[in-house]
Amino acid sequence: MKVLIIEDEPSLRNSIREYLEHQGFICEVAADFREAIDKVTDYEYDCIVADIGLPFGNGLDVVRELKSLKSKAGIIIISAKDSLEDKLSGLELGADDYLTKPFHLSELNARINALLRRKNFDGNTSISFFEITVVPASKTVLVHDKSITLTGKEYQLLMYFIANQHRVVTKSALAGHLWGDAYDQAGSYDFIYTHIKNLRKKMMEAGGEDYIKTVYGTGYRFG
Amino acid sequence: MKLLTKTTLYFIMIMLPVFAGGAFYLFHKFNREIKHETDEELANDQLQWLRYLDTASVDNPIFSFRTQEFQLIPTDQPVQKKFKLKGVTLYQETEDAQAPFRELSQVISIHGKHYQMILRKSLIEKDDLAKNIIYVMLLAFGGLLMFVILSNWFISRNVWRPFYRSLDKIRQLQLNKMETRRFPSTPTHEFNQLNEALNQMTDRIHQDYINMKELTEDAAHEMQTPLAIAQSKLELLLQDENLSENQLKNIGQTSEELQRLSRLNHNLLLLAKIENQQYPVTEQPDLHQVLVQYLSLFEELIREKELTVETDLAPTAPWPLHPALADILISNLLGNAIKYNYPEGLIHIRLTAKTFTISNTSNLPEIPAGNVFQRFRKSNLGYSNSNGLGLAIVKKIGDSYHIRISYQYLNGLHIFTASC
């Protein structure tokens, strides 16, 4: 899976790259508009992560260029601008997703994974992790080929963990992924624990191994 | 007091004594003049009488004459060289009243005999004349006064019209629409100066406002990038498997704080945007749907705390709000009701077409009325995951979109009401 990261801030660019490469993506980077245009015209990517504000141009123009090239690449815009209009104009141009800064790297990774599943396989594939198999099209989860029933939130949790295997994901990242911006109101992330506990229980009851490790005071690690 | 009333009053206050003094002076002048004329007439009559008495009645030297107009009475007093004049009042039988007269008296000698001669002239007719004249004068003065006051009023009204127009404009000034407000030039020099000064002032304020707005927005946007970098670095750091529990915990906490900062930034920006009316009312979102959506979104939180939620909802409630603001209004109020509740507490929600009321139990005491909607006026009683802007945002939405937001503490319940 080839991902192009278009971001002018070197630190952020490198963080994203490092995180994604660890998750098995092949990453290319572009630091400004010209470089981005050169890369998208010369090479094919599965997914493009583009910042809007770039030196020498606008990330939205990169999206336009990609559309005119009839590129099949999935596009995720990352921007500090979070107004509805900005989001809509980005999505209207043909971007697939819009993430406002600051975001969790695990969230970006989960979105890229979801996007690639939709784009490349039309969801008609299964993801496997040892004895666990997920069929996204039907939202079914099999443990040792035996179907288990998960609630919507538990399913989302599992998918998030699978996307971010072997990485520590923070509780706030999980809350943000599952409940959106409204999780601000929560007051605590304790309620996530209930979902984790249930997911863990259901998978272990089906004979699966416990892959969810609690990382003290921070979050969880899967696998 | 209105300027017009004030000038008119001052005008009356000045004109009244002047006019009264004038009338008084005229009255006296007339009286004196009439007296003088009468005296002259009397002197004239006296001359005629003396001439007549000197020649006539020579044969009848002793006689006496008594009428109101003319008296000739023998007397022993010495002859007076000059006559005396004075005013008297005499009884009039026919009218049964006293009437004013001028009287000329002199002791004269006719053929060696002394007589007291008294000549009188009634002042009544002349008095009437004076009265009439004064009456006419007063009428004329009064009319003049009225006329002057009225014309002053009309003139002032016209002259001050540009002033009131400017005043109206000032009253309607809004920060975000300031550049379209121009104070026009007027025919009056002073008002032109005033309007020019106002134009300059609004331009300056508007410019400052724009700069400030841009600064806050740019600052908020620019802050997101370093926040994103710090956030990503911490997340990468978390992946280091050699970290101790304590280090992991510290990184986790730093990450939390960073997100709080980011939310704070986001909310401040939101406040600024609501203030600048950057959320036009394009459609009327159904508050009922929004509420149901957030109730299901917060379902876990409610279940976690074992809260009882009682609802009394109208099937639809289209409110004149931007959809994003309807979301914020509901999520902030509902979120607070959950966050500040105690376990197994109660939330009651009532929604009609025009009002939304949410009440909740809480361990927190009543919030002082002055503080409840103020920025950063958060409770310090163990709810650290608050940036103190939630209610300020709710209030700002209310202020900007004509929705009344009120808070009440009743029977241990914190009650927030929004009504449009």
UniProtKB/TrEMBL annotation, chain A:
Residues 124-223 form the OmpR/PhoB-type domain. One of its GO terms (cellular component) is cytosol. The modification 4-aspartylphosphate is found at D51. It comes from the Bacteria. PROSITE patterns: OMPR_PHOB, RESPONSE_REGULATORY. Keywords: DNA-binding, Phosphoprotein, Transcription, Transcription regulation, Two-component regulatory system. GO terms for molecular function: phosphorelay response regulator activity; transcription cis-regulatory region binding. It holds the Pfam family Response_reg. Gene3D superfamilies: 3.40.50.2300, 6.10.250.690, Winged helix-like DNA-binding domain superfamily/Winged helix DNA-binding domain (1.10.10.10). InterPro entries: CheY-like_superfamily, OmpR/PhoB-type_DNA-bd, Sig_transdc_resp-reg_receiver, WalR-like, WH-like_DNA-bd_sf. Residues 2-116 form the Response regulatory domain. The keyword Repressor does not apply. GO terms for biological process: regulation of DNA-templated transcription. The keyword RNA-binding does not apply. Residues 124-223 bind DNA. This is Response regulator transcription factor.
UniProtKB/TrEMBL annotation, chain B:
InterPro entries: HATPase_C_sf, HATPase_dom, His_kinase_dom, HisK_dim/P_dom, HisK_dim/P_sf, TCS_sensor_his_kinase. GO terms for cellular component: plasma membrane. It catalyses: ATP + protein L-histidine = ADP + protein N-phospho-L-histidine. Keywords: Kinase, Membrane, Phosphoprotein, Transferase, Transmembrane, Transmembrane helix. The keyword Amino-acid biosynthesis does not apply. One of its GO terms (molecular function) is phosphorelay sensor kinase activity. Pfam families: HATPase_c, HisKA. Its EC number is 2.7.13.3. Residues 218-397 form the Histidine kinase domain. SMART domains: HisKA (SM00388). The chain crosses the membrane at residues 7-27, 133-155. This is histidine kinase. It comes from Chitinophaga varians.
